[in-house]
Design a protein that fits this description.
The chain has about 160 residues and is mostly helical. The chain folds into two domains: about 80 residues, Rna Polymerase Sigma Factor, Chain: A; about 55 residues, Orthogonal Bundle (Arc Repressor Mutant, subunit A), CATH 1.10.10.
Length: about 160
């Protein structure tokens, strides 16, 4: 296990730093990832592809963190908001990570494009409707449908 830690620590830490854009969060995420790896190894399950397993665990831990962040974000009062990080940037990181995995969620082409333009490119509903040459109500429906599918996927 020490060799796994030595081999993957830097890779996972810098990946986590890129995801969180915050040193403390990256350290926490890295620790959680290695804790999950140690727990998996303690089960003595045969491992075919170590590299794939490590990154699958890392992504799963990141998704849990992102999911919890999104859930908690709605329950935070203004007095509790931490202004030491850029919340808009973290939202964008989370949505970009979700966008990279939308193929597994089953979004239609219009849902995918609308979701990406709205959350990652910061376009308004009007701008998206102009770009896709469809009504604003269609774009609102695509976004609603996409959010429902993403929410269902991340609540599993």
């Amino acid at each position: 296990m020490d060799s796994v830690y030595d081999k993957y620590f830097d890779k996972i830490y810098f990946w986590a730093l890129k995801k969180t854009n915050n040193k403390e969060d990256a350290e926490d995420l890295t620790n959680n990832i290695f804790l999950a790896i140690f727990e998996y190894f303690s089960k003595n399950i045969a491992i075919e592809k170590l590299d794939s397993l490590i990154w699958k665990i890392a992504h799963n831990i990141w998704y849990l963190k992102a999911k919890n962040y999104i859930k908690e974000k709605d329950n935070v009062t203004l007095d509790e908001v931490n202004t030491s990080y850029n919340e808009k940037y973290l939202d964008k990181v989370i949505y970009n990570d979700i966008i990279n995995n939308l193929t597994n969620i089953g979004l239609t082409k219009n849902e995918f494009i609308s979701f990406k333009l709205y959350y990652c490119n910061d376009l308004s509903i009007k701008e998206i409707s102009d770009k896709l040459k469809t009504s604003e109500s269609n774009i609102k429906y695509y976004l609603y449908s996409a959010r429902c599918k993403v929410k269902e996927r991340y609540n599993e």
